Structure formats: structure tokens, C-alpha cells
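In practice, a research group might receive sequence data for several interacting partners and want a quick structural hypothesis before committing to experiments. The following worked case mirrors that situation: the sequences arrive first, and a predicted assembly follows.
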Amino acid sequence: MQPLERGGDESRLMQAARADPDQFAPIFERYVGPLYRYCAVRLWSREQAEDATSQTFVKALAALDSYRGGSVPAWLFAIARTTVIDIQRRRQRELTEYAPSVPVEIAPSPEAALMAAEDARWLHAALTTLTADQQEVLTLRLAGLNAVEIAAATGRTPGAVRALQFRAVAELKRRHAMSDGGGGGV
Amino acid sequence: MSSEPRRDIERLDAALDALSPDSLESVDVAASRVLRRLLTAMALDVLQPADTFRSELRRDLFGLGKDKSTMLSGLHHVVLFCADTERSREWYARAGFEYNRGYGGMHWFNAGPHEFMLHPAEQGPSGNAPHIHVATPDVDALFEQVTTAGLQPLDHQQPGVVINGPVTRPWGDREFELEDPDGHRIVVTQS
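A structural hypothesis for the assembly, expressed as C-alpha cells:
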């Protein structure tokens, strides 16, 4: 996966979009994929990932006046993050026995589920061995944000983000070594 | 974290900044293996937005109010310029059109949900060709859309004048006119 493009024209597009929301379209095209991937890995449900992605863009368009410059992806992912948290809270209220043990719901078809099962299960298992903060930082990283942008999106310092991602990878390394050694890790 | 080597933290951060397999050469083997597998998993098709979702969301966010099919809600009425509107009135009645109303030499007939208007002939810029009135829920938005598309709205009552927005008729209609490449006059009316 390649990092997100950081077009130098993003701030100009954001300014123009205040008068004409269609100017936001290039930003939508650039970030719809990364935002969807972030929501999918946080929610492990295609339906809810689509819902979260849609809500994120609707909220963003409604809040264009609140954008005060700075990183556009950090601004967008901050909206996505709160949207995902709201959906997770709602889901916990609605499903008292929710147990996201196997991410099969994300698969579009039985064939795709079979093909993707190993990698998808591994990713799900790997992330769920991490703390909530580590999961969030690593997921945002894998969606394409850098440490400074993750810091802006989550209200942390860049140093705290770098430490969290370091510890997340260290934990995955440890689990990976256990797995190689027959210890049953990820 | 003071217990973790700052250099290793920075090295991992730099590798993640690049997020490409080449960048993982700079971290230790175990970290590289984990990150490669994470990147592979994140690229799974099942973690990509479906094309239908993407296109529907794009349409929902940016397509509303811009689609010509939604901007034009249907035919409003047709104006026929007649040399003798009384003679034409008799003809249209015989042809089965339902008479609706008339005054000042003008007559209206029903044709299903639409109207045919018989208007005394006049020699305007478009001669006596029929005027087709189409309805729109937002005549101002459609005026902007067609001017953005490079068309020049007209008003037969102000020949030669460039209008900057829809005109309001004495009887309340708000509209503008377009002339197609063959000279057909299309009138867009708020309705």
C-alpha cells in the first residue's frame, strides 16, 4: 500500500468547497479508500464500514466552515474516528453478546471469504492482541496517516503516537515469534 | 517511552512513513515480517470499498441537484403561434383537445396533464416556431447550470439583451429561454 498523496492544493480545495461543495470531490476521491479501510478494520463489517464512511463525508461537508487549515487527512480521520466510536457504542448497546471473533462479515462472497480468510483472520487476530490505543494508532498508520497527522486526529502528541506504534509492533513481533515457535500467537 | 531506544522508535516511524516494502529493510527482520503481513492484509480486496458503494456515495454527496434529469421535472406547456387563433381554437376542439380557458385572443387546451396554448402569431427572433415550456423546481439553479455549460439564455421579450438570470413575467411565471441549434425555442419555467 502506498502512502496517501498529500496534494498541495488540498487547502485551496477546502476553501473553494465552502462556496461550492463540488470542489470537495477530489478530496473525496483521494480519501474514500483509506477512510473505508480504516472504518472496515475498526468495525469488521462491510455494512457498518460503508455507513461510517458515508457519515464521515456527510459530516465533513456539513462542517467545511470548521476547517481551520492544517492537514486535511488529519481533519477527515478525526471525523471518521468519532464516527466509528459512536457506531461501536451503539453496537454495544444493541448487541449485548457481540463477539467479533471472526471477521467473516467483511467478505463480499463465500469465495472471497475463503480466499481472504487467512489474511483477514490474521489481521483481525493481530489487532485484537493490542491495546485499544495501539490498535487505533496502528490502524490509522496502515490507512496512510503519518505520526503527526495521527496526533492531530487523535489529540495525542507525535511522540506519544510514535511510542504507541513502536509498542504495537513490538507486541506483534512477540506474538509472531510465539506463533513461529508453536506458542499459538498471531 | 524512555525505556525504548529512541533510535529504534524513529527508525520504525520512518519505515511506516514510506509504507512500502523497500522501507521495511531499515527495520529489524521480525518487525519487517510483521509489517509486510499487515500491509498484505490491508490490501485485501475485502477491505476495499465496493465500486457500487463508492459511486453511490459520490452521487449522493455531489450529484444531487446537478443531474439534468432531476433538474427538469417534465413538460410544462407548448405554445403554438397561430395566424388566426379563433380558427385554430375550432380546429383543436374538433381534434379532441379539451378547452380550458381563453382571453385576449389566446386559448388554452388540455392534453392530459399538459397544456397547449394558442397564441396570436408574432414575428419575433424565432418566428412562429412553437415554444416548448419545460418545468423545473429550481429555475435559478438550472439557469446557472446552463450558463456554466456555455449556453446563452434568452428572453423573446428582450431581443438582443443578455439576461443575467430568469425573468419574471407579469403573470408570475419565472423563466428563461434557450434556442437549440435548429432554432427551436425551449422555455424553462419554474413550476
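Before designing any experiment, note the following. DSSP finds eight helices and no strands in chain A. The mean pLDDT of chain A is 81.
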